[in-house]
Amino acid sequence: MIQIKKYAAIDIGSNAMRLLIVNIVEQDGKEPQFNKSSLVRVPIRLGQDAFTVGEISAENIDRMCDAMKAFNLLMKVHKVERYMAFATSAMREAYNGKEVVAIIKKKADIKIEIIDGKKEAAIIASTDLHHLLKSDQTYLFVDVGGGSTEFTLFSNGKMITSRSFKAGTVRLLNNMVCDVVWNEIEKWIKTNTQEYDEVTLIGSGGNINKLFKLSGKIQEKPLSYIYMNSQYSFLSSLSYEQRISELGLNPDRADVIIPATRIYMNAMKWSGARNIYVPKIGLSDGIVKAMYYGKI
Fold first, then answer.
1. Which residue blocks in 79-223 are alpha helix, DSSP H?
2. Has residue 237 got a pLDDT over 70?
3. Residues 94/54, Cβ–Cβ less than 8 Å
C-alpha cells in the first residue's frame, strides 16, 4: 500500500524564481521517495535591482505578483497539500523587501519568508546529501546563487561548518565583489580544509547543472578541474550572443555562467579538490525535504 503526498517549494533567488512540485511516495518499511512532478523557472533578476539600486523596482514587483499568482494556480491544479516560499539574497538586501512580501501576500495569497544565508545553507544541506557522502571522505558543498554563495564542509558523513559569502553571479556581473571578499573566501576554504588529505567538491545551482549538461557526462561521474578550466576559457572566448545561439543557453544564463564557473574553480583550487560532483539538488529540494521531516 502506498500513499502519495504533494508538497511544493518556491525559491525566490537573485537571478530567477522557481516553483518545485514533488510527489512524496510513502511505503511501509521503505524510505520515502521524492519524485519531481513539475519545475517552473521564471527569469526575474531581482539582484539587478537589489544590489545596484537597493530596492525591488515597481516593474519587477508586478512581475513577481504575476508569477506568484501563476504559481498559486499551478499548486491548486496539482492539488498541493503544503508549500513554503523562501526568498534569499536579493530580497534580504532590498530595503523594500518586507513591503514586497506584504504586497505578494495581498495580491497573490503566497506567504514568503526572507531567510538569511545561514538558514539557506542549512536547508540546502538537508537535501539527500547523505546518499552522496561516503563516510570516510571529505566534501566541500558549494551552492552558487545570484547574490551569495554558500559553502558547507562535510567529513565522515557529518557537517563540520558552513558559511555564506556575498559573492554571487549577479554581483560579479556588476563588479560588486571586491578583492577583500575573495580573500575572505580563500582564507575560509583553506583554513577549514587544510587538515584533510583530500577534498571533493559537490556543486549546486543552475549554472553548474548547465555546465554538467554541456559535458555530456552521466550523472554519477564528476567534472575535473581541468575540464572546468577549459570550459571557462571556451565560454569566455564566446560572445554573449554566441553563448545563446551556439550553445542554446537562456539569455539569463548566458552571462552568469562565466562568473559562476569562476567561483567553482576557485573553490576547487583553494580546497585542493580535483573533482566536482553535480547532483541535481538545490534550495527548493531542501525546502521540500525539510518540510517533510519537520526541520522547518
1. 89-93, 97-108, 117-125, 169-173, 179-193, 206-215
2. yes
3. yes
